[in-house]
């Protein structure tokens, strides 16, 4: 009888100890992944940064804040911004950042992800308001770099490194889209006219060179005349072609020259 009571007492103590360990084990032992760090506070004071792997804590005394060291992504909501040249546009962006100092990220700022998101929104509005629309559309990489540097400067005391910022979309008003389309069409017309004028100028230069060459070799004009006749005869034309020798025109020119000289003598 006494042995049974002793055995029951042992069982009771063993069960109590097992339950106690099961309840305390999560408070004593924690396992952190490779990309995680634990900021440990002991009685409310910062103790250390631990991890990765297995860490041991004092139950009910140590409190832990887990910090993810991977690159995090924030989608900056679409913002309505007025550019430097007073054009209203809607822009949104994506911010990539990571925690490089777990202690500062937990102690220096409350909810560092939310704080970085709010800072990205205000910085995006500020930078876009300082540039003109043409610069925003043409120099997207430069603006992304400027936004990234501004955010990174302000988040550096928080232990956060902003990897990059990408302006994803720029939405223009419909009237501005139509104005830009008319501008692009006018620019294309201008280029077409300039190209046409340059072609006419080059053609005129070549014609002048050809005229000078023909002047030194009159037979070249006769050959060109015969070539033109050959080209016309190959086409299915409905008109008659009557060639005249070049000397025939020269005779009329000499006659006019003779008449003018006789008039001068009189």
TrEMBL record:
GO terms for cellular component: plasma membrane; side of membrane. It comes from the Bacteria. The keyword Membrane applies. CDD domains: SPFH_eoslipins_u1. This is SPFH domain, Band 7 family protein. Keywords: Membrane, Transmembrane, Transmembrane helix. Residues 27-184 form the Band domain. Pfam families: Band_7 (PF01145). It comes from Gracilimonas mengyeensis. It is found in: Membrane. SMART domains: PHB. Gene3D superfamilies: 6.10.250.2090, Band 7 domain (3.30.479.30). Belongs to the band 7/mec-2 family. The chain crosses the membrane at residues 6-25. It is a single-pass membrane protein. InterPro entries: Band-7_stomatin-like, Band_7, Band_7/SPFH_dom_sf, Stomatin_HflK_fam.
